[in-house]
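Suppose you are handed a protein chain with no further information: no name, no annotation, nothing but its sequence. What can you learn? This example shows the usual starting point.
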Amino acid sequence: MRIDVLTLFPRMFDNFLEETIVGRAVREKIVDINVIDFREFSDNKHMKVDDTPFGGGAGMVLRVQPVYDALKSIEGNESALKIMMTPQGSVLKQDMLAEYKVRDHVIILCGHYEGFDERIRRYFDLEISIGDFVLTGGEIASMVLIDGLVRLLPDALNKEESHLNDSFQDGLLEHPHYTRPRAFDGMDVPEVLFSGHHQRIETWRFEESLKRTKERRKDLYKAYMKKHKAKK
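A reasonable first move is to predict its three-dimensional structure. Written in structure tokens, the prediction is:
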């Protein structure tokens, strides 16, 4: 997979692209991630990428020209999945990541300032948000999207890091995990995990996953129960 990121702050991605699973996937050429400073495409002699909004109002608005020219400079942009990071977009979900992971090429635009010139939206396929809140810019949000996407790519995770049992993978929150020591500060690890009986352990994990989802995310629990009731 190839990912191109359009941003005004490329240095924010330096450590992100070198560390943990994303960094390993880049080094092993599982994913090719390019960070593009679209300020360099401004036709303004002062390299400005924003301007005051028509009609008045506070804040500055990203100009369409630098974004358009930066986008068009990317080879294969016509067939790429083009995503804008914006609080007005659809909230990112695990099933959306599973859908995007099959694409060969993804382009992500990080917004900044008060917002985008509305005409920029014409050149993008999707608008994505990571929640009902506002950040200074789209860089952190784009890292969330990239991280969630890359870890689903074949060979990005080691076998011990498999995403198949992650929270949301089957519509439920993940079950509790334990490791050494067996007892700590009056808290003991459930006996079933030492039984050596794989079926009993899997049953316990499923029941705990169901219980945790019901307690913490009733919306997910209801959706899961409705889905599996319909299959019967």
